[in-house]
Amino acid sequence: MSDIAEARAMARRLRAALAARDMAVLHAFALELAAGQPAFPDWSAASAAPSREGEAPAGEPASVARAEGAVRFLQTIPILRIFDEARAREFYCGFLGFSVQFEHRFAPDLPLYMEVARSGVRLHLSEHHGDASPGSTLFVPMQGVRELHRELLARHYNYNRPGLETLPWGEQVEVHDPFGNRIRFCKQSQDAGG
């Protein structure tokens, strides 16, 4: 079976599994998630790529063939604690430019759990007491940190005017969300492995 057919089947299974838990996602979003599993950045790249059966995963020697059940970490998605849905949306969507990918509540009056994403970064935001501690720090390696800095300043967000720092490991913009969490967006220098 080709990677494209596998990704489509995985997307259908994912939507069915989430629907069974009262979490509806768009088919296009399920395709994006499934496309990332075989190491494609998005659905467009997965559907355009030739089949890669028998290839080793990216970053591994060619002698390591893709095996069913082999351990392979695909991505880290941090969970950040939030306390106020409106302020979280204002900061993550309005100020940082993320888009909501899904939202879930066990009942209308219970805490929110949602995913936001932008340019390959996915974050889970949770009002649930046990999911995370406020005051976390995320380090996000990226390209275009100067452009991000200009974009953020142009938004005139009342609670955050981040600077652009040149540090030994690269150029960095640090923002603070309304809940005490920090995100450090960094264009790493060549010396720092970026």
Describe this structure in words.
The protein is of the alpha/beta class. It has two domains: 1-74, no CATH class; 79-192, 2,3-Dihydroxybiphenyl 1,2-Dioxygenase, domain 1, CATH 3.10.180.10. 28% of the residues lie in helices and 23% in strands. It is built from five helices and eight strands. It has a four-stranded mixed beta sheet with strand order 1-4-3-2, covered by helices on one side. α1 (3-20) packs across α2 (27-36). It is globular, with a radius of gyration of 19 Å. 22% of the residues are buried. InterPro entries: Bleomycin-R, Glyas_Bleomycin-R_OHBP_Dase, Glyoxalase_8, VOC_core. It comes from Camelimonas fluminis. Residues 72-188 form the VOC domain. Belongs to the bleomycin resistance protein family.
Mean pLDDT: 84
Summed up, the domain count is 2
Give the CA-CA distance, first to last residue: 36 Å
Order of helices and strands: HHHEHEEEEHEEE
Structural classification: alpha/beta
Portion in strands: 15-25%
User: For this entry, what is the oligomeric state of its chains?
Assistant: single chain
**Please, how many helices?**
5
CATH class annotation of the largest domain = Alpha Beta
Enumerate the spans where pLDDT stays under 50 for 5 or more consecutive residues: none
Sequence of strands across the biggest β-sheet: 1-4-3-2
Might you state the CATH topology name of the largest domain? Answer: 2,3-Dihydroxybiphenyl 1,2-Dioxygenase, domain 1
Biggest sheet details:
4 strands, mixed
Shape: globular
**CATH-wise, what's the superfamily of the largest domain?**
2,3-Dihydroxybiphenyl 1,2-Dioxygenase, domain 1
Architecture of the largest domain in CATH?
Answer: Roll
Number of strands: 8
Radius of gyration: 19 Å
Helix content: 25-40%
